[in-house]
Amino acid sequence: MSRHYLMCAPVHFDVTEKSNPWMQPDHVVDKERAMAQWRSLVDVYERLGHRVSFLDPVQGLPDMVFTANGAVVVGGRAFVARFRSATRQPESAAHERWLESTGTYTVTMSEGIGEGEGDFLFTGRHVLAGTGFRTDHATHLEAQEFLGHPVISLRLVDECFYHLDTALLPLDADTIAYYPGAFSAGSRRLLERLYPDALLATAEDAGHFALNAISDGHHVVISSGSTHFANQLLDRGYEPIPVDLSEFRASGGGPKCCTLELRPGTPAR
Questions:
Q1: Active-site residue, selected from the candidate residues 95, 140, 149, 163
Q2: Does residue 163 carry a catalytic annotation?
Q3: What is the DSSP string of the chain?
């Protein structure tokens, strides 16, 4: 099925602070290389038949390239993020303006702290939602009320996996991949019950951002270097497509971070 993605060119991308363990503020971003890597990701999506729309970058907002954090969009309803970091808070208004300008979505901004598809992952059946570092648990209830889909809360306990999309990947409506070590004991038991046939990523896979990936149900766009995880995907009948986003690794980002999925639907009135 063709997907619709929102992306933002890394015109102003930089690593200016250390808000997660992966960030390297001393890393000098190669702007030309970052743009070429981002463009290659866009090209992959378009080659696979997916539609890509673009959010205009805003000077002074170095993390706007990570559009996944800006909202979660399900069935034509867009739940816009409210960021924990003061540096990123202005991104919310940019996402809200773009989504409203399309005339396609029913849009609301989260009242509580919630960081879009960083912590809200739609499986096709329900929303898996992360908490523990960035998104408040109360915002899960707010998202459920607005989106009209069951929201299942999962607690993250390893600061290296500060967003759910660094530790869990929906592959299709019935299958996920995840790294067990990122979750609390209760959340692991819940995932085992819901997804007994899930792909389990190793610590090495997770550390390569293998799970910060995009699946259209068959093709899985993953960070290059995730060889073991790519082989797991092949064994399950998926087609892994590696992309080099090494410039964005210095800020804790991979393919998913750079990609917000826009799921259509008839907006509720």
A1: 163
A2: yes
A3: ---EEEE---TT----S-SSTT--TT----HHHHHHHHHHHHHHHHHTT-EEEEPPP-TT-TTTT-GGGGEEEETTEEEE-B-SSTTTTTHHHHHHHHHHHTT--EEEE-SS-B-GGGTEEE-SS-EEEEESSSS-HHHHHHHHHHH-S-EEEEEB--TTS-SGGGTEEE-SSS-EEE-GGGB-HHHHHHHHHH-TTPEEPPHHHHHTTTTS-EESSSEEEEETT-HHHHHHHHHTT-EEEEE--HHHHTTT--TTTT-EEB-------
